[in-house]
Amino acid sequence: MEPEDQANSSIMESISVARRDQVEMPTGVHLQLDQLVFDGETILSDLDLLLEPGKITCLLGPSGVGKSSILKILAGFIPLPGDSKITASDNQGLSGRLSYMDQKDLLLPWASVLDNLLIGSRLRGEPPNIERANTLIRQVGLENWRDNLPDTLSGGMRQRVALARTLMEGSPILLMDEPFSALDAITKFRLQDLAARLLSDKTVLLITHDPMEALRLGDVIYVLAGHPARLSAPIRPEKDIPRDPSDGIFTQHYSAIMKRLAGEAEEAS
Amino acid sequence: MRILRALVTLAGLLLIWGLITAILGLPKFMLPSPLIVAEALLTHKSLIAENALTTAIEILVGLILGVLFGMVSALLISAYHPVKQWIFPLLIASQAIPVFAIAPLLVLWLGYGIAPKIVMSMLIIYFPVTVGFLDGLNRTDQSWLNLAGLLQQSGNAGRLRKLINLYLYIKIPFALPSLASGIRVAAAIAPIGAVVGEWVGASSGLGYLMLHANARVQTDLMFASLLVLTAMALILYYLIDALLLRALPWLSTQNSPKTP
């Protein structure tokens, strides 16, 4: 974190608390990554990734290409390497304005669905907003499971709880690391519909290795492939999300993306 | 079913014991038959009950205090790094000293009453509880810590408040299964501390009674006391186990150590 960011962060924190639950202007994020080194090997260099405000940006790529690392850098789980830079479109720090959703649901096994949604406010020592939690539980269709423990829910339901918990924070920027990859095809399909509905107006970075998912949900799609990995030019499929896989545009983009993924993989090997 | 199995095992053991005494024809001061021991249990029941009460109190108080001290130590060591650097080696060293060796000292300092036995039980329990809980606290899933850190970024609570909440809502609950394992071990070994304490110097308790009976070649009374002590230890263990399972209901569907 830059020193001035640190100085700003306490002010930022109080602003973001006041702002929670209010409609605010979506914020864009610009990541300039000089290079990313793992075990002495450069896996990424000169990456320039723009998350457009209020849009879902999909980062599509094969496993091990470093796409999760990009997300972890944005989330602050990995320190920002060397000459790299993260800037928000409103020139304010990102601290307190990010929410994160993992491939694993990360639900607390001892807490009910409701309590899992309230964990953020509990951790911050704020009075929990039960009304908002109830609304979100209704929106993800789990009103009859509000008091259930995660163990009694199916994988899809658990991931819906995780989605609701992510939205519970009201953060303008959402980072999602393959959030639906552990689900079966039908459950995944339904959750993508749900996510498309609930994520409007949020600035979202969605990491995925599934071209289908990228095409269903991505307003903007980047393919990350090669060695060291490079970012493709942005792909902006015409229709609004969630897109219908039986659509002609969909299949056309699908084969183009597959070609790009395959081509880059060939080049690397 | 479980109880039936336990009873069958018990009956089998008693039968083997009875057969050995019958076939070898040992004198009853060497190995009394189960019948003689049962008789001794009945004749001396008030004496045994009185002494068993003392031992039970020592074990329970020692267990409660030992678990409390162990939990506090684990929390301090986990939350405050210097404590770990300075105190943890001491903790290990304290375990290298056999409890038997310091028992006479404890009696010398604390007298013949209940206090040195409680301290003995505490000493013996403290380590497994501390290490078990600490292990659990140190092994919170990194992805959960990441998420919690992000969730705590906004909000204007102070650093200490956030740390306490992190422990309260994430770290401690995740560490409870490890703590439970530590407490199970503690429940199993707590009676050792109390009885050793009584052997070194006491005026009541089952350990004292056994020593006394041994000196007067009342082997049947000794066996009767031993049986009662074993029964007490077993009841304590299963009681604690049942309590722990009830306190951590989400574990029963996951990977809890199943009761045999």
From TrEMBL, chain B:
Transmembrane segments: 59-80, 87-112, 118-137, 166-183, 189-209, 221-240
ABC transmembrane type-1 domain mapped to chain residues: 48-240
Isomerase as UniProt keyword: no
BP GO terms, sorted: transmembrane transport
The keyword Cell membrane belongs to this UniProt entry's keyword annotation: yes
This protein's GO CC annotations: plasma membrane
UniProt protein name: ABC transporter permease subunit
UniProt keyword terms in alphabetical order: Cell membrane, Membrane, Transmembrane, Transmembrane helix, Transport
Compartments where located: Cell membrane
Gene3D superfamilies per the UniProt record, alphabetical: MetI-like
Membrane topology: Multi-pass membrane protein
Organism placement in taxonomy: Bacteria, Pseudomonadati, Pseudomonadota, Alphaproteobacteria, Sneathiellales
Protein family (similarity comment): Belongs to the binding-protein-dependent transport system permease family.
